[in-house]
């Protein structure tokens, strides 16, 4: 009985572990100071001429700490992930992104990595 109780308590506590997705432009946060063209898709005035496709999810992390669905949705004009016009905190032409989603602040998953290292 005691083992079942402890097991259940552990199981329930693991339900609350995990990571928040963090800010995603056009999905969880609006594009900074720019109008959103459609509330159903992550299109904005800064990427309206880019012809971004929704069928490919290749997230990038902007220097503004926001995840974009792709370099195209970040408004990047150069193949080396620079010149990203949708980022708000960088001067025009200096905004860059890196591949992958931005780290989530306060991620509870760190508990598992710290306590269950091999």
Automatic annotation (TrEMBL):
<dbReference type="Pfam" id="PF07648">
    <property type="entry name" value="Kazal_2"/>
</dbReference>
<keyword id="KW-1003">Cell membrane</keyword>
<feature type="signal peptide">
    <location>
        <begin position="1"/>
        <end position="26"/>
    </location>
</feature>
<dbReference type="InterPro" id="IPR002350">
    <property type="entry name" value="Kazal_dom"/>
</dbReference>
<dbReference type="GO" id="GO:0016323">
    <property type="term" value="C:basolateral plasma membrane"/>
</dbReference>
<dbReference type="InterPro" id="IPR004156">
    <property type="entry name" value="OATP"/>
</dbReference>
<dbReference type="InterPro" id="IPR036058">
    <property type="entry name" value="Kazal_dom_sf"/>
</dbReference>
<protein>
    <recommendedName>
        <fullName>Kazal-like domain-containing protein</fullName>
    </recommendedName>
</protein>
<dbReference type="GO" id="GO:0015732">
    <property type="term" value="P:prostaglandin transport"/>
</dbReference>
<keyword id="KW-0812">Transmembrane</keyword>
<dbReference type="GO" id="GO:0043252">
    <property type="term" value="P:sodium-independent organic anion transport"/>
</dbReference>
<keyword id="KW-1133">Transmembrane helix</keyword>
<feature type="domain" description="Kazal-like">
    <location>
        <begin position="40"/>
        <end position="88"/>
    </location>
</feature>
<keyword id="KW-0732">Signal</keyword>
<dbReference type="GO" id="GO:0015347">
    <property type="term" value="F:sodium-independent organic anion transmembrane transporter activity"/>
</dbReference>
<keyword id="KW-0472">Membrane</keyword>
<dbReference type="Pfam" id="PF03137">
    <property type="entry name" value="OATP"/>
</dbReference>
